[in-house]
Amino acid sequence: HGFVEFTDVEKSYDGRTFAVTRMNLNVARGEFLTLLGPSGSGKTTTLNMLAGFERPTHGTITLEGQPVDRLPPYQRNIGMVFQNYALFPHMTVEENVAFPLSVRQVSKADIAARVARALDMVRLQQFGDRRPTQLSGGQQQRVALARALVFQPSLVLMDEPLGALDKKLREHMQLEIKQLHTMLGVTIVYVTHDQSEALTMSDRVAVFNQGAIAQLGSPDDLYNTP
Ligand code: ADP
Ligand code: ADP
Question: Is the C-beta atom of 44 inside 6 A of ligand 1?
Answer without folding.
Answer: yes
